[in-house]
Design a protein that fits this description.
Rossmann fold, 6-stranded mixed beta sheet, 9 helices, 2 domains, alpha/beta
Length: 279
Amino acid sequence: MSDQALLTLDDLRVDFHTPTGIVNAVRGLSFTLGRERLGIVGESGSGKSMTGRAILDLIPHPGVVTAKRMGFRGQNLTTMDKRARRKLRGRHISMVMQDPKFSLNPVQTVGDQIAEAYRVHHRASAREAKERSLSMLEAVQIREPARVYDLYPHEVSGGMGQRVMIAMMLIAEPEILIADEPTSALDVTVQLQVLKILDDLVTSRGMGLIFISHDLHLVKSFCDRVIVMYGGKAMETLPASELDKAQHPYTRGLLGCLPDLDHPREKLATLNRDPAWLA
């Protein structure tokens, strides 16, 4: 990890105030992100996606985001006004949502959407935006970018839609990319292609990547560090290569629930949760 942190979170909390009480989606999460691949893993509802959305100020009402500090390149996001936060979104920090085809406008061609994302953040002519969009489609390994440029979202495959969304998020050249389950709906071959694209971007551009996933094996092989979350809290943080050596009983439980083709078992282990973990 670079000595210079791109992002610093100190005691991040996301609470939803409902008629039946307060739901604590994220509970006192703290971490730093450098020019690296940081994985965040955990069960559904553990707060992974809420963490990414909170960074981008995308938590819907009645959610409330608080933090002692949420720092980006020396700026405190918690004290920044809405307009300034909006300018950071996309230009400096982007997020690829889970199942991105649902994030694309169904009545606008994918090329026009990528070009629009570029023109929002740069003073550019329509011609320049189209040229940059075609280059970005090629960069994410889409064959025949000129043909794909004129397609609508329903005309592209799942893997192509994923790469289109990545192109749209990267065309403004952000310093941080938050990828929320970017490969969950893809077959293995396309998954490897998308991961290679992300890996190349971190290496060549010095970008910081937050990689949100359920797949422990994938995170172990792809990321540099990993945060294991449960109930909105970080149970432990460790080098991804040492995930098999994790000490926390929750992480051990997750690993024990994974099938192992080399050592088949009659029954997979059941994860036992301890209320003391959230104390």
